[in-house]
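I have a small job for you when you get a moment. Can you supply me with one protein entry, sequence and fold together? It will help me judge whether the discrete encoding reads sensibly. Write everything out right here, beneath this request:
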Amino acid sequence: MDKKNIEQYSIIVEFLGKALGPDYEVVLHDVENYNHSILAIANGHVSGRTIGAPITNFGLSTIADKSYKDSEYKVNYNGVSRNHKVLRSSSMFIKDDKGELIGLLCINFDDTKYIDISNQILKLCHPDSMVDVQNTFVSSTLIIEDDPESFTGSIPDVTSSVLNQVLEEKEIPLDKISSEERLQIVEILDKKGVFMLKGAVSEVAKQLSCSEPSIYRYLSKINKD
């Protein structure tokens, strides 16, 4: 993003943060610097991030699969903060004159206290057992995506969140992982854009208990195939 765009969108971030209130985090991402992607942020306490934090798994995936080309935004998907709060997230794709992605304007809403208030109101007119049932229903429907956006503040955290999601989906135990499974995992991580992050190869190698050259060999084989 050029200086003019950064200045304009930074004002929008500040404005929306004040207009919407403290439960809405507003973030401006630069997609040309994945490791230090956040250029401006309002109400960063919602996710626990600050300026200079890396791009999210959602951002990496959007860039890797170029899904931004078919739409202008994505609204009301799930994100998870550092303290495991489920957030309602929306992202607008900022594009240049050629339709290429240059940034992301994101809003993450923490509705925790509103759920708590609604439960307290229910307790005024219903038995606690009914409220417990309602709580179970609400909690079970909060995360509806298989791959929610994860808000982290470091490259190891971003890499780890994506890797753990893949391992959970594939039901692969790290202590009994085979070379073929490592190759499969690396291929999935590559498709999700993880290796666009500087230092991701080293982090993945550590977590998969193999060497960095091994990860590069897997990537070479994937690209060759």
About this structure: DSSP finds eight helices and six strands in the chain. Confidence is low (pLDDT under 50) at residues 136-144. The first helix runs from residue 3 to 20. The beta strands are 24-30, 38-42, 73-80, 86-95, 101-109, 149-150.
